[in-house]
Each structure stands twice: as structure tokens, then as C-alpha cells.
Design goal:
Helix content: 10-25%
Structural class: alpha+beta
CATH superfamily of the largest domain: Nucleic acid-binding proteins
Radius of gyration: 20 Å
Number of strands: 14
Strand content: 35-45%
Largest sheet: 5 strands, antiparallel
CATH topology of the largest domain: OB fold (Dihydrolipoamide Acetyltransferase, E2P)
Order of helices and strands: EHEHEEHHEEEHEEEEEEE
Length: 219
């Protein structure tokens, strides 16, 4: 009993305030390293999962969806559920068509069109003509003015609906032309007002497509 092979934690931080939750999370991680044994930690908080785990098992309705390292779950979600659970704010999803025309490949949501460039186009081309769910994280949607150099960029426009200044970044709640709301995490130097039309640079290297029926990743 004093030297168990496995520790089970069932949402131990759920009733703590934010500051104490962060401190206790760090202490549990230190304890895990010191004891060098298995911790099974149940949580609905993706921040706890990402910051504490060496492996994450994502579950929905009692069924295992994906088991992998935190970074691999973030980079390569197996389905829409995992893509939406990992990351805050969560991944943006759009119903779309993958269109091949004049040698180019595009994502067409009805509210915007994005060219699929480079290696990503080769990867997605077998699915040309299909209805897909297009997924892109808020941190992969940049203000055109402050887009990081070297990203696999495709541009779009949208209208600012709400802005949230977080200090080191700004959350832009945006509306596409078909009135679909989505979120971008942009550089704090961006100056926009509600109602402004903005040009956005989408990093297509980190974009995802999913099957609309099964919600499983296609690429």
C-alpha cells in the first residue's frame, strides 16, 4: 500500500481556484517525476492533460478516441473530437468542399476560399471533389501584417465581430461572408475595431480535413 505500482487521480483539482490549481498541478508533476511510477489522471481540463501528461488517452462516451503524446494529439488529431478538445480556444471547424481547378487545390466553405499550397496540396489531392470538415486552430490564423515569416500561407478576409485583448495576444472573433463565426489568436500590435474587414494569413501547414460523416481525419 505504501509503494503502489499505480496512482489514480480522479479530477483532484476541480474544486480549487485558478491560482491554487496551477500550483498543485506543478506539485503533482514534481511528485510524478520523483516517484517514477505510473499516474493515471482523469480530467475534463485539456490544460491539465497537456501540461502534465506524457501520454494522453482521449475518450468520448466511454470509447477511446486516440492515445498519444500531448504534442502528437495537438499536431495530428485522429478525429474532430480530439481536434476540438486539445487546444484553447479550440480548433475552428468549417463544412467545406475540396475543389481542384486549373491545377490548383482550394478549400471552399461558401464563406471563403483558401488555396492549398505546396506539400499540403499533394497530401490532400486524393480527396479533391469531396465534402470535408476543414479544421484550423486559432493560433494558425494570423493578421496579414504580422504573419510569421516562412509559413505556408493562404489569405482570406473576414469581419471583426468581437475583440479580446489578453495582453500578450488578441483573440479576434470573426465572421466569414456566410456568417460563420471563428476565432483567431493574433499579434497584440494589431489594431482593429468591431466591424472592420481584415485580411488574414492562414498557416495551411497546420490545417486539417476530416470526413463529415465519420469525423475521422483524412490527412
Amino acid at each position: 500500500v505504501r509503494e503502489p505500482a499505480v496512482f489514480l487521480f480522479d479530477e483532484p483539482l476541480s474544486n480549487l481556484d485558478a491560482k491554487l490549481r496551477v500550483e498543485t498541478r506543478a506539485n503533482i508533476s514534481k511528485l510524478h517525476k520523483r516517484l517514477a511510477t505510473t499516474f493515471i489522471y482523469v480530467t475534463h481540463d485539456q490544460v491539465e492533460a497537456m501540461t502534465m501528461a506524457t501520454r494522453i488517452a482521449g475518450m468520448k462516451d466511454g470509447l477511446l478516441q486516440q492515445i498519444d503524446s500531448p504534442q502528437d494529439l495537438y499536431d495530428n488529431p485522429a478525429n474532430v473530437f480530439v481536434g476540438g478538445f486539445i487546444g484553447s480556444p479550440s480548433m475552428n471547424f468549417f463544412d467545406a468542399t475540396l475543389v481542384a481547378s486549373d491545377g490548383k487545390l482550394e478549400i471552399n466553405t461558401g464563406g471563403f476560399r483558401l488555396e492549398v499550397p505546396g506539400e499540403k496540396a499533394k497530401e490532400w489531392r486524393p480527396h479533391a471533389g469531396k465534402q470535408v470538415v476543414f479544421g484550423i486552430r486559432p493560433e494558425d490564423i494570423h493578421s496579414k501584417q504580422f504573419a510569421p515569416p516562412g509559413i505556408l500561407e493562404s489569405d482570406m478576409t473576414a469581419t471583426v465581430d468581437v475583440t479580446e485583448l489578453m495582453g500578450n495576444e488578441i483573440f479576434l472573433y470573426l465572421m466569414s461572408k456566410d456568417n460563420k463565426q471563428f476565432i483567431a489568436r493574433v499579434d497584440p500590435r494589431v489594431r482593429v475595431a468591431i466591424g472592420d474587414e481584415v485580411t488574414l494569413a492562414v498557416n495551411m501547414a497546420n490545417a486539417h480535413i476530416f470526413d463529415p460523416k465519420t469525423e475521422i481525419s483524412l490527412a
